[in-house]
Structures are given as C-alpha cells and as structure tokens.
Amino acid sequence: MDEFQIIADIFAPLATSPGAFGLTDDAAVIASRPGFDLVVTTDQLAEGTDFFAFDPAADVARKALRVNLSDLAAKGAVPEFYLLAVALPQSMTLDWLKGFAGGLLADQQQFGVSLLGGDTSRGEGPLSITITAFGFVPAGKILRRSGARIGDHVYVTGMIGDSGGGLAIFRRENHTLSESQRDYLTGRYRLPQPPVAFGARMADLASAAVDVSDGLIADLGHVARASGVCIVVDADMIPRSDALQALWGEGIEAIVRAATSGDDYQVAFTANPAREQDIMARAGDVAVTRIGRVVAGAGVELRHQGQPVAVSRSGYRHF
C-alpha cells in the first residue's frame, strides 16, 4: 500500500470528528469552545526505547496515545482529539498496521477521543510514533506545576514502579514471580493506565499536578522547582503493587528503585489538606494515596522512618 492508501484504508476510519474532513485535506479544524481553554501536549515513542519490536501492534498504539492522555489528565483537561505522525520502517506489514489501528480504535472508544490528522512517512530507522493530543479545561483552570503551597499534602494515583518492574523482566532480570505476577508487571509496561477521567474531576481541588513519566521523584522535582518549595515524600507511603514487591523486595532500596523508575503515567498532585475528603470522594475506582507534604525549601526530600534517604538518580533522563 502507498501512503494515500494507508491513510484512506487504515487511518481515515478513526477520524470521526467533522473537523477532520475524513483525512482528505491538509489540515483540520477544532471549533472554539466558549468558557474553555484548549490544552495541547505531544510525545514521541521510539522502538527500542519506549517499546519493543515484538510488542503487539495494538499495545504500541494504545501506549502512544495514553502517554499523551496522561499529560492531559495532569492538566485537569478532558481529552478530545489527537494528531498522529508515524515514520514506518521498510519492514512494516499491512497486518501490523491494521492491528495498530485497532488499538487506537479501542482507546478512542474508551476515552472518547478521535483522530484529527497527522502524517505518514517512510523512515530509514526503527519505527517512530508521535502523537499530539488536545483537550479542554474550564478557562483559567489548567493545573500547572507552579501551584504547590507550603502546607499542602502530596498525592499520587495508582501504583508506582510497576512499569519499571515490567521493563526489568523484559530485560531478563532474574525473578521467581508467578505467571500472573509476571504478566501483570509486563502488562503495565506495555499498556499504561493513566487516570484520565479523574484528572478532570480533581481539577478544582488540586493546587499543582504533574504526570509521572520519568519517575516519581524526578517529576515531583519539577513541581518543587516551579513552585519554589520543598516536597517531602514518605517512602513507606509510596504505593507499590504486591507483584512489584515480590520482584524487588520491600526494603528502602526497592522503594527508591520504584520511585525513580519511569513510564508509570500516573498523576502526582498537591492540594490543601482541607480538600482531602473531597479528593477521595471523587477518586471513584482510582487509587489515590497521600505520600507527603509541601514545606519551605527546595527540591524533593525522600524520608524513610523519619530519616532522609540519599537518591543518586531521581529518574529517567533522555540525554
């Protein structure tokens, strides 16, 4: 298939918004929405760095979309649209593309988003996927990294470190996990579970937020720096799954490893302690855990049994 056949047969069925014009034009239209701000984010995934060549095509597609939805959740935005740019290697097959589109369709139905357009090209290197996602938040209500205040509590959704554990398994780290524990962790690496709906529900309760993509400590560091505060994290409160504890153990070294692993795609946020009851009431089926507090100072301080813990590497670095 050539580029235009791929667009028409594989991707056009995903472009359900009228503003996408069925992917028959060079651009798309997003209608203005009075009373709301448009929030835009983009992420690139590369084979060999963010996913493996042997990963199912549907999972690769869904991960590429979900890492962007995680960013929107951390802004308090409701996702609506996305653009897709792919550089396909020479070895790409039609069956793989159909599986990829199937994964996108499944997540479009789950999260209520649609494809607006993008670009399809042939690449000389490994598969590269870039998605730009768009969402809406009430005007002036976007959650930023700079809103944390002294006295706020610090929270995180979901479990921390599961994706890092899954990656370790793919890299053949020795373990004695059961099949279900192994599949749980590798599944979290392949397919993130961002709290998309909860992001919008917490928008008027949180003071600052960030998606946990490079590691909990590293990403909270962005909030601390932007807000001009220190974030103190209680290591024993960081939520970790039973499967991850079976893989890495329960000691402080294992906790640090979980807190500095990347690819969790959960949301860490700060809020006035008086809002905690409302936060938990709105959490629904999303696990929300209080893990620390905001104090005067700078940076992130991890503490275990009241004592500071040295963290040599706060998270993943791209360069």
Written overview of the protein:
The chain is α+β, with helices and mostly antiparallel strands. The strands form 2 sheets. The protein has a 7-stranded mixed sheet with strand order 6-8-5-9-7-10-11. It contains 10 helices and 11 strands. The protein has 2 domains: 136 residues, 60s Ribosomal Protein L30, Chain: A; 165 residues, PurM-like C-terminal domain (Phosphoribosyl-aminoimidazole Synthetase, Chain A, domain 2), CATH 3.90.650. The chain starts with a helix and ends in a 10-residue tail after the last strand.
Task: Briefly note the structural class of the backbone.
Answer: alpha+beta
CATH superfamily of the largest domain: PurM-like C-terminal domain
Rg from C-alpha positions?
20 Å
Low-confidence sequence ranges = none
Please write the string of helix (H) and strand (E) elements. HEHEHEEEHHHEHEHHEHEEE
Please name the CATH architecture of the largest domain: Alpha-Beta Complex
**Which of globular, elongated, flat, extended, rod-shaped describes the shape?**
globular
CATH topology of the largest domain, by name, is Phosphoribosyl-aminoimidazole Synthetase, Chain A, domain 2
Number of helices: 10
Reading off the top of the CATH hierarchy, the class of the largest domain is best stated as: Alpha Beta
